[in-house]
């Protein structure tokens, strides 16, 4: 019994979630990259959602069925977000946020779900506003 418990605990300990990545941005920056690269092979029919989870929850960007879905995002992010071309093939799910604002500071979560809504991947990025040196 103890040996199976040991193997079970080793198994669960190996499923660690990476700590949130911190990205700094200033008012001098024209854009900021919220990074998320994966080597996982992703199915064609997935949904990639970037959300601001703190301080308030907002839908920042949605990529679904091979296309960006601007109608599903919060008005504050309209025309300010961009993902790279063919993110599912390249594994680069990073999000570029243009014209960053102080109110963009917070915790962002990128969640990748399959067509049945099951989560496949998740990444947390903290965007921290820094005063520009001027």
Describe the secondary structure blueprint for this structure.
Blueprint: H1 2-13, E1 21-25, E2 31-34, E3 46-54, E4 58-64, E5 67-68, E6 81-83, H2 87-90, E7 95-98, E8 106-114, E9 119-129
CATH fold call = Immunoglobulin-like
Q: What's the assembly state of these chains?
A: single chain
Mean pLDDT: 86
User: Which range does the strand content fall in?
Assistant: 35-45%
Most strands sheet? 6 strands, mixed
Low-confidence stretches: 1-16
Shape: globular
The total domain count is 1
Tell me the helix content: 10-25%
Radius of gyration: 17 Å
Structural class of the secondary structure composition?
mainly beta
Describe the protein in words.
This protein is mainly beta and 134 residues long. It has a single domain, classed as Immunoglobulins (Immunoglobulin-like). 12% of the residues lie in helices and 40% in strands. β4 and β5 form a beta hairpin. It is globular and about 45 Å long. The model is unreliable at 1-16 (pLDDT under 50). One of its GO terms (biological process) is negative regulation of T cell proliferation. Residues 1-16 form the signal peptide.
């Amino acid at each position: 019994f103890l040996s199976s418990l040991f193997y079970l605990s080793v198994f669960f300990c190996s499923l660690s979630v990476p700590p949130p990545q911190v990205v700094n941005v200033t008012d001098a920056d024209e854009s900021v990259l919220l990074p998320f690269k994966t080597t996982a092979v992703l199915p064609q029919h997935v949904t990639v959602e970037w959300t601001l989870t703190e301080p308030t929850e907002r839908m920042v960007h949605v990529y679904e069925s091979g296309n960006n879905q601007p109608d599903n995002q919060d008005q504050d992010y309209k025309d300010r977000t961009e993902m790279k071309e063919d993110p599912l093939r390249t594994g680069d799910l990073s999000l570029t946020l243009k014209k960053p604002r102080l109110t963009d500071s917070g915790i962002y979560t990128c969640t990748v779900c399959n067509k049945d809504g099951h989560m496949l991947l998740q990444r947390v990025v903290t965007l921290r506003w820094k005063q520009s040196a001027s």
